[in-house]
Amino acid sequence: MASEEPVFTDVSIGQTVYDESGEELGTVRGVDDAGFYVSAPTGTDPLALTDARDVFGTAYVMWRCWECGEMGEIGSELPENCPSCDAPREELYYWAED
């Protein structure tokens, strides 16, 4: 059985993205060299911070600022603002670090 080649498509911030079966993954929140990040659709169950995974297994869950790149450890939730550049909470996202 021949495997199919992946199809690459340009994505942009604000675009809704779907998996191969047509299920909504979420809305694109950011794009970088590693890929794109989505905000989960309304009504999805949140993952616990301890459920964060990377290709090697459990990773340290941190936050990262879109504005300045500052990173920090997460207690029980994201800080209200980036302590480095004062960007609002909406500019912070979860980051898995090994």
From TrEMBL:
Domain of life, per lineage: Archaea
Alphabetized Gene3D superfamilies for the sequence: 2.20.28.10
Residue span(s) of domain DUF7130: 13-98
Name of the molecule in the record: DUF7130 domain-containing protein
